[in-house]
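call fold(seq) -> tokens
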Amino acid sequence: MDIASRRLLALLLFTGLPAVAFAQTMPTSQSNFLQIIREDVKVGRGADHARIEAGWPAAFEKAKSPYTYLAMTSLSGPTEAWFVSPFESQAAMGEAMKMEDEPALSAELTRLQRADAEVVNSVRIIQAKARKDLSHGAYPDIAKQRFWEISIFRVRPGREGAFAAAAKAYGAAVGRAGADVGFRVYEVIAGMPGPAFLIFSSVTAFADFDKMMAADEAIMKAFTPEDGQTFEKFFDGAVNVESHRFRLSPEMSYVPKEVRAQDPAFWMPKRAATKPAAPTAVKPSPQQ
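ret:
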């Protein structure tokens, strides 16, 4: 499957509703499945990549596509762009695959794919299933989230239960600490070395990460001795843990018009017009 087909596969809206009915809203609860397209952007080509990627939502809007997605760019780690889209089921993923031959879009998507190849080193597709039993807190207003922290936990085969126990212990400590903390957990089912889990947290302003860190300290103080033992068992079976921070990219995202209308300054910022440079006067030569 080429990049264009993969992108088409990931265009379903952030919601748990059936594919025919979810074009007009953003999700209000954690979706059953998640797909992430990770693009490794060439050094120094971030602006070019954003300009090219803006062509994708423009093409989908022109074709009146009902399938929207959010895009985010890395603020830590490698220079990456993540395109994240949930699905109600794997059957919905299969239905989305049929879009790759969509005649109204295919020519433009092929052009964009070729342009993308000039600024991207590689593409990785990750699919994951929701672990709602390990998630915690109220689901955020996705349309207002501006920054994300995504943590990747890799464990040794057979130690998935240790991760689940640690996640549940952490959630219980959140409750004891009375912390206003929410996160969504997904278990990777394809696309990267596993077993692996992804934890998504989001904030409306970068300064809110200070509150998140303060809350984490309070939660750690609420740990019981049993929690400590649970985490010790988890870390004995952990391969590695890494966290990444991202900024939402409005120009690379494709969201409903209703969402853009709620905050046009963010979703549709006015670009300053560039005045063409005045022609330079040429001094006539003596021979003229």
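The radius of gyration is 22 Å.
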